[in-house]
């Protein structure tokens, strides 16, 4: 009898192992899948050798031409190359967002917000958000005025620091812009701005950025292998993930409670007030709720500062390491502005896109992507690798974007995505990057710190970053 039971268990396990390693029909090629782990071990080995997940997937794509992998229970397709990325971004069948429990954890095990929702819920909330943010300046001339004010506050802070340090000051550049960029978003959402020295907000941003380094765009160890939440909560990133979100939830609830106490119906000061007016209306849509308002606030708090501030930080890293380009930029700023503060009149944050989900079985590049499978694009490889079409794509050559003194629109440059999932905050991100960069270069030289060269090793996470310091001094050239 016992041998029958053992044989039955062995048969069931063998069948499960076979099914767990079997790829869907016409699925993109990639490493073999093994029971339980999928292809995690191959991906981890490549990541260890090359230093990052985006470099690992780019290298594996060169082997398999197309690339999919499975980590634990999750099959994931990686798109590589500008044309393939465009096809993914523009496909109506691939505009869904993940439904895995990992992505719901951040919003109380429900699908809330605008960043990670889809279908009619997302469409209604996105329309409402963009329509009413415009009332407080988003995407208008008033937005550039708001950002210019934040640039002014940051420059005042730098001036004060320089005076206190006998003519120059050293800053940790990876965190220098985060408060200012957050303020440009938060003033519209909650009517509040924070000083550079606000310790509570600095602490909150610090733990949030630390969490971003323990996860990646398609999940974390505890999401691919859920048992790790219980066996290794610290090592798998689960403890950090939940503790960070709890502190952000507490902060947002306090902000909302403060708004409720001073809210005057139909006299909105910011987006929160507008949303509270809707919630007090007896006939509002089911997609509106306090939880949804908090989730929108969380999306804007996280996405509204981390990516843009990291991009500005990278900008100054390249300018610091390429003094010739820095001087050229300053010369042009002097010629155009003639001493006036910069005004907005012209214009790759993440290594991967925010994950898409197949809303139905669909075709991509000749392969079948089954319903609910996650798909991401390797933006770093598409814009900075051989597939980008650029000559010497990994070199800092801003002149490649200029022709006869005018900015050239480069077809393969896709930092904000395309289609219905194009970044909602694109106009604000472009304005922040331009105005903060021009504002600092107009007044200051940004140089290396003696005996403290920048560590060029990219810190992985939701958004890649580099930790470095810069010495900022007043420019000797006339303004």
Automatic annotation (TrEMBL):
It comes from Dendroctonus ponderosae (Mountain pine beetle). It holds the Pfam family p450. GO terms for molecular function: heme binding; iron ion binding; oxidoreductase activity, acting on paired donors, with incorporation or reduction of molecular oxygen, reduced flavin or flavoprotein as one donor, and incorporation of one atom of oxygen; steroid hydroxylase activity. Its cofactor is heme. It comes from the Eukaryota. Keywords: Heme, Iron, Metal-binding, Monooxygenase, Oxidoreductase. The keyword Iron applies. GO terms for biological process: organic acid metabolic process; xenobiotic metabolic process. One of its GO terms (cellular component) is cytoplasm. Heme binds at residue 423. PROSITE patterns: CYTOCHROME_P450. This is Uncharacterized protein. Belongs to the cytochrome P450 family. The lineage of its organism: Eukaryota, Metazoa, Ecdysozoa, Arthropoda, Hexapoda.
């Amino acid at each position: 009898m016992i041998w029958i039971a053992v044989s039955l268990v062995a048969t069931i396990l063998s069948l499960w192992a076979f099914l767990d390693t079997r790829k869907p029909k016409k699925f993109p090629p990639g490493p073999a899948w093994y029971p339980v782990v999928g292809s995690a071990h191959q991906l981890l080995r490549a990541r260890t050798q090359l230093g990052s997940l985006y470099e690992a997937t780019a290298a594996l794509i060169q082997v398999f031409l197309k690339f999919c992998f499975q980590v634990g229970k999750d099959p994931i397709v990686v798109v590589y190359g500008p044309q393939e990325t465009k096809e993914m971004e523009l496909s109506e069948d691939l505009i869904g967002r993940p439904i895995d429990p990992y992505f719901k954890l951040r919003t109380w095990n429900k699908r809330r917000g605008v960043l990670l929702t889809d279908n009619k819920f997302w469409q209604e909330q996105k329309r409402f958000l963009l329509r009413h943010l415009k009332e407080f300046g988003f995407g208008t001339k008033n937005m550039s005025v708001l950002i210019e004010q934040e640039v002014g506050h940051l420059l005042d802070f730098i001036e004060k620091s320089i005076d206190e340090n006998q003519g120059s000051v050293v800053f940790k550049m990876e965190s220098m812009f985060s408060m200012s960029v957050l303020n440009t978003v938060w003033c519209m959402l909650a009517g509040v701005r924070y000083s550079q020295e606000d310790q509570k907000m600095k602490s909150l941003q610090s733990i949030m950025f630390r969490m971003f380094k323990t996860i990646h765009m398609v999940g974390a160890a505890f999401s691919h292998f859920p048992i790790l939440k219980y066996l290794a909560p610290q090592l798998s990133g689960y403890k950090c993930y939940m503790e960070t979100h709890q502190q952000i939830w507490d902060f947002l609830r306090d902000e909302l409670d403060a708004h409720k106490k001073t809210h005057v119906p139909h006299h909105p000061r910011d987006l929160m007030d507008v949303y509270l007016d809707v919630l007090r209306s007896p006939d509002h849509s089911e997609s509106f709720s306090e939880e949804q308002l908090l989730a929108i606030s969380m999306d804007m708090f996280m996405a509204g500062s981390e990516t843009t501030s990291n991009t500005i930080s990278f900008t100054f890293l390249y300018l610091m390491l390429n003094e010739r380009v820095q001087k050229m930029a300053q010369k042009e700023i002097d010629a155009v502005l003639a001493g006036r503060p910069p005004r907005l009149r012209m214009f790759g944050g993440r290594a991967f896109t925010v994950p898409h989900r197949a809303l139905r079985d669909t075709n991509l590049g000749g392969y079948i992507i089954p319903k609910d499978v996650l798909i991401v694009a390797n933006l770093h490889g598409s814009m900075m690798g051989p597939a980008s079409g650029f000559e010497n794509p990994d070199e800092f050559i801003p002149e490649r974007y200029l022709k006869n003194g005018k900015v050239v629109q480069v077809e393969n440059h896709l930092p904000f995505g395309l289609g219905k999932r194009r970044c909602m905050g694109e106009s604000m991100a472009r304005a922040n990057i331009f105005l903060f960069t021009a504002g600092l270069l107009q007044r200051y030289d940004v140089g290396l710190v003696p005996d403290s060269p920048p560590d060029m090793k990219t810190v992985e996470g939701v958004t890649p970053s580099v930790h470095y310091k810069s010495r900022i001094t007043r420019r000797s050239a006339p303004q």
